[in-house]
């Protein structure tokens, strides 16, 4: 259609070929293929003149209209990809979303007023494509699925801590091997089972036991504050309690491996402006020294 309309507009195959940056032979061949496909003659051609047939005039008018609509559609789609707008579907871990994502959303709204957010919170790993999410926030050592694009948003430190009351009653462990005689509250979704892993040197694991396991970090934090035992939890959960003294860090000389907060999304190609702007916003808000680690 583009070649045909170019020939009609230019008035000759030679000038049309120049405009299209193609050879005259290629233009002539494409027009012949179009006529063969339609089963009609669109142009009457002689060595000196060229004119539209009756059906050619009808087809030309329709082509002009269709090509204009196509150009308008492509321009609209292209502009949408450049302007952040529409509904952004996000999945995030429960406690992290409540404490550190939700407070940022009004500021993002101010920066991107045309973006709405549909936030789903749970602590399972969702399938972004099957469940229709634009992106997910994940906390792990690696971004997990190799089929996803992952961008690092912030470091996540894990520390061992307990309440002053618990430590007063049961003593403070001085080394990881002493954890075996303590109540160590476990997180159900960990990939470490009933062991706590320490970064070393050298790296090593310690088997721990406790009367409580839970699939939510806030539950473990509140139980620890109440004196139930020791916990190994990220600073984004225990930071406030450490700062105000409700919890006390132990084994500070024996670091646990760090995790990372990731933004993961299905593809970098044709990444929408709403996803790109949200990920950039979170990376700037948290960074290498996230606010939840202030003063620790």
Automatic annotation (TrEMBL):
CDD domains per UniProt: PBP2_CrgA_like
Span of domain HTH lysR-type: 1-53
Name under which the protein is recorded: LysR family transcriptional regulator
Keyword check for Transcription regulation: yes
Residue stretches in coiled coil: none
InterPro entries attached to this UniProt entry: LysR-type_TF_proteobact-type, LysR_HTH_N, LysR_subst-bd, WH-like_DNA-bd_sf, WH_DNA-bd_sf
Entries under PANTHER family matching the protein: HTH-TYPE TRANSCRIPTIONAL REGULATOR, TRANSCRIPTIONAL REGULATORY PROTEIN
UniProt entry tagged with the keyword Cell wall biogenesis/degradation: no
Name of one Pfam family that matches: HTH_1
Stored SUPFAM superfamilies: Periplasmic binding protein-like II (SSF53850), Winged helix' DNA-binding domain (SSF46785)
Source lineage: Bacteria, Pseudomonadati, Pseudomonadota, Betaproteobacteria, Neisseriales
Keywords for this protein: DNA-binding, Transcription, Transcription regulation
Homology family: Belongs to the LysR transcriptional regulatory family.
């Amino acid at each position: 259609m583009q070649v045909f309309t170019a020939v009609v507009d230019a008035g000759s195959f030679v000038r049309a070929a120049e405009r299209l940056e193609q050879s005259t032979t290629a233009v002539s061949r494409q027009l012949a293929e179009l006529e063969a496909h339609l089963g009609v003659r669109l142009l009457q051609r002689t060595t000196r003149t060229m004119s539209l047939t009756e059906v050619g005039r009808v087809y030309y008018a329709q082509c002009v209209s269709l090509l204009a609509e196509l150009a308008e559609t492509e321009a609209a789609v292209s502009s949408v990809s450049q302007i952040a707008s529409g509904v952004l579907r996000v999945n995030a871990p429960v406690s992290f979303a409540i404490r550190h994502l939700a407070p940022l959303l009004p500021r993002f709204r101010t920066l991107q007023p045309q973006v709405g957010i549909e936030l789903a919170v749970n602590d399972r790993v969702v399938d972004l494509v099957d469940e229709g999410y634009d992106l997910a926030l994940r906390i792990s050592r690696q971004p997990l699925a190799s089929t996803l694009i992952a961008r690092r948003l912030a470091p996540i430190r894990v520390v061992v801590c307990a309440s002053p009351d618990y430590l007063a009653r049961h003593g403070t462990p001085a080394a990881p091997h002493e954890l075996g005689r303590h109540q160590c509250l476990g997180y159900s979704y960990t990939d470490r089972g009933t062991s706590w892993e320490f970064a070393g040197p050298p790296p090593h694991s310690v088997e721990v036991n406790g009367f409580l396991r839970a699939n939510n970090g806030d539950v473990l934090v509140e139980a620890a504050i109440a004196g139930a035992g020791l916990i190994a939890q990220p600073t984004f959960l225990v930071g406030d309690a450490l700062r105000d003294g409700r919890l006390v860090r132990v084994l500070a000389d024996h670091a646990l491996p760090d995790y990372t907060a990731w933004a993961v999304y299905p593809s970098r190609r044709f990444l929408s402006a709403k996803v790109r702007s949200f990920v950039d916003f979170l990376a700037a808000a948290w960074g290498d020294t996230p606010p939840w680690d202030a003063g620790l």
